[in-house]
From TrEMBL:
Coiled coil: none annotated. Residues 19-30 have a biased composition (Basic and acidic residues). InterPro entries: Asn/Gln_tRNA_amidoTrase-B-like, GatB_Yqey_C_2, YqeY/Aim41, YqeY/Aim41_N. It comes from the Bacteria. This is GatB/YqeY domain-containing protein. Residues 1-46 are annotated as: Disordered. SUPFAM superfamilies: GatB/YqeY motif. It comes from Streptomyces synnematoformans.
Amino acid sequence: MHALRQYGDGDTADPEGAGLDHRRVGDAAGREGGQTEGHSVSRAHPSIVAERRGAGVFRGRLPRCRPAVGAAWETPTMTTLKSKLQDDLTAAIKGRDELRAATLRMTLTAITKEEVAGAEARELSDDEVQKVITREAKKRREAADAFEQAGRAESAERERAEGEVLAAYLPQQLGDEELAALVAEAVAEAKAGGAEGPRAMGAVMKIVNPRVAGRAEGGRVAAAVKRALAEG
């Protein structure tokens, strides 16, 4: 049996995905009373509202937003990466791939929560969706380590397997040598600009982060920068 993983704001999710209905994944559209089939949300997400309405499931109302003068009404479309996740979820369900289906369900739920977390619901960009996937992958690595230390090998293996599913949607991760080379270049540039030693940490991170571009976790990058600065 797998431990429940914490997913922000006190919510928990079952790694098996047993309690999730794939028809409700990403459903942030509420009925007039703010209720959906199995979910209660505070606001409707336009793209999901339009999708469910077209599928004949949505029973609420589309947001009534007046476009600017001379502008045409447009139906928001999902980002390429989010759309791929949903397509792959559908394929996994049809193919009875429980591992992939459960992993993608929870990831899409995390994306939807991020979309409605602010003052107004919005559509995440591909870069933002990628950050959510990165965060979800990190949770699974941490959970796998925790299970391993607790002697729960089966649960640890499950977490690693889910992490491998998510890795397919992320950029190829940098090797240690590749990351060290990028950091070394950034340290040299920062030094040329007058920033040296441990105090140059911020300057180096500012240079190296855009070059890493999601190919290494922030903590890993920071550790490499600290190591490089300490070595002089």
